[in-house]
Design a protein that fits this description.
six-stranded parallel β-sheet, about 300 residues, globular, Rossmann fold, 14 strands, 2 domains, three-stranded antiparallel β-sheet, L-2-Hydroxyisocaproate Dehydrogenase, Chain A, domain 2
Length: about 300
């Protein structure tokens, strides 16, 4: 393969991300986990599926970060998962220590890599990665809005009984309960959502979107979502490695866009070979801007705790 991707964390999110990248022949993949034999075992299992599925990507697993050297993109999923009744904020201290160690090991061996953070609380872990790596904002950002928007798209499609392919959506702000679903920028075959649903139904969809991760945590009883998160990471990695320049909502370090500075928040970003090619500024109503700033304020509170 022309590209190499590292995924740190061989749990459900990490392993499923590796599987998606390899099966699409997007890159060769290194999968690292503190439980090295588990990572090796999952990598071997996936490689033994290659003759059946017909992919030639190579997957290597283990606990030694030397296998990550020369990675174009590094995806960090390592960390403690949420448990029922636990908020993303509860994970802050424990996952901060894990992220510091992981990012330090990665950038030492792949100084030109692009970091995609998945570990929760997402926006705060992006800040930890930025501080440790010293990278500019184009090379360290988080997977949040793609997942949240995908959830909203599914809920809209199910409500209206239409194909998910016909639904677009944007969810901005922090990856948490204060995220900002934008109904005005959500369309079905090009028709704005407010023209198709009344305010009560839109509010219900917005609420379910905000609580989407918690809903799945509650149903699983152990662990958290991984099919949709891994699909979201895959879309981001594909846009970067194939230089597709897709506009995807990501957690990006803002420098004045939307009136926000020095904070990570979910905004539309153009993703290409160099990472964040451009932050796209859409016009927001006063109410939407207020919600976005409220969400960003929640993230800044976490920054202060770091």
């Amino acid at each position: 393969m022309d590209h190499k991707v590292t995924v740190v964390g061989a749990g459900h999110v990490g392993a499923t991300t590796v599987q998606r990248i390899a099966e699409a022949e997007l890159a060769d993949v290194a999968m690292v986990d503190i439980m090295g034999d588990m990572a090796k075992g999952k990598a071997l299992d996936m490689m033994e599926s290659a003759p059946v599925l017909g992919f030639d990507s190579k997957i290597e697993g283990g606990s030694d970060y030397e296998i990550t050297a020369g990675s174009d993109v590094c995806v960090v999923t390592a960390g403690l998962p949420r448990k029922p009744g636990m908020s993303r904020d509860d994970l802050l201290a424990k996952n901060k220590a894990i992220t510091q160690e992981v990012v330090g090991e990665l950038v030492k061996r792949s100084p030109d890599t692009i970091l995609i953070m998945v570990t929760n609380p997402l926006d705060a872990m992006c800040e930890v990665a930025r501080r440790v790596s010293g990278f500019g904002r184009e090379r360290v950002f988080g997977m949040a809005g793609v997942l949240d928007s995908a959830r909203m798209r599914y809920f809209v499609a199910a409500e209206l009984g239409v194909s998910v392919k016909d639904v677009t959506a944007f969810v901005l702000g922090g990856h948490g309960d204060s995220m900002v679903p934008l109904a005005r920028y959500t369309t079905v075959a090009g028709v704005p959502l407010p023209e198709l649903l009344d305010d009560d139904r839109i509010d219900a969809i917005n609420s379910r979107t905000r609580k989407g991760g918690g809903e799945i945590v509650g149903l699983l009883k152990q662990g958290s979502a991984y099919y949709a998160p891994s699909a979201a990471v895959f879309e981001m990695v594909a846009s970067i490695l194939r230089n597709k320049k897709q506009i995807l909502p990501c957690s990006v370090y803002l420098k004045g866009e939307y009136g926000l500075e020095n904070v990570f928040a979910g905004v539309p970003a153009k993703l290409g070979r160099k990472g964040v090619d451009k932050v796209m500024e859409f016009e927001l109503t006063n109410a939407e801007r207020k919600e976005l700033h409220t969400s960003a304020a929640d993230v800044k509170e976490l920054f202060e705790k770091l």
